[in-house]
Amino acid sequence: LDFDSLFIFTTTPEQSYYQFLKALEYLSKKDVQDIFQYYEENEEEVEIKDIIDNYIEAKNPTDIKVFLMKNVNDLDLSNIDSNRKNLILFDDCVAQRNQAVQQEFFTKGRHHNCHCIYQSQSFYGMDSMLIRKNANCFLFFEFNDKDLSQIIQSINHGMDRDRFKKVCKTQWKNPDDHGYIFFNTRKPAGERVMTDIC
Predict the structure, then answer these.
(1) Residues of the chain by 3-state class (helix, strand, coil), percent to 5
(2) How far is Cα 49 from Cα 22, in angstroms, rounded to an integer?
(3) Where are the domains of the chain?
(4) For 150-162, how does the pLDDT look when each residue is reduced to its tens digit (9 = 90+)?
(5) Which of the listed residues 32, 105, 128, 148 has the most CB atoms within 10 Å of its CB?
(6) Distance (Å, whole) CA 11 – CA 9
(7) C-alpha–C-alpha distance, residues 59 and 160, integer Å
(8) CA–CA distance from 144 to each of 53, 56, 77, 109, 123 (Å)?
(9) Running DSSP on this structure, what letter comes out for residue 121?
(10) Separation between Cα atoms, residue 2 and residue 45, nearest integer Å
(11) Which residues on adjacent β-strands are paired with residue 118?
């Protein structure tokens, strides 16, 4: 993903994933990816903070800015620098009653050079009128048959219903090896569903 500023709204900013992303202020995206892979392979033996602190010692700050916040109301579209490439991540805030901030970013964010990711465990918990309808891409991990049937009815996947179901089930067989479906609504009908992208 290409961005200069990363804004993350999450109720759990202390998660190791987000601490790694904070390191982008000092390291290249490739370095952060390499460190994360090292951490995943050695999680039992090393502390995340130690890895990051040792790696960024004596590094100059990059031009990337990372903002971790617990309160979604700290995000204000009018304060976003539209001269920068802004990526906004809303992490599992589907239970939040007031989705006004998220809706504003999804409907008006493009005019401020913002791209949004709404990470949720529930496709149907998302506000359907403003967030789902303004989303261009979806990344689907395994669903049960009922949810998959509802998704097939909800989005124009551009392929035969049974074929789409088969593609999904095949991808989800091995979650450790690209066990997801990437769906892009902007692509032509036969090219919207993508697999094995990494």
Answers:
(1) 40, 15, 45
(2) 11
(3) 1-135, 136-198
(4) 888 888 778 888 8
(5) 105
(6) 7
(7) 52
(8) 41, 42, 36, 32, 12
(9) S
(10) 32
(11) 90
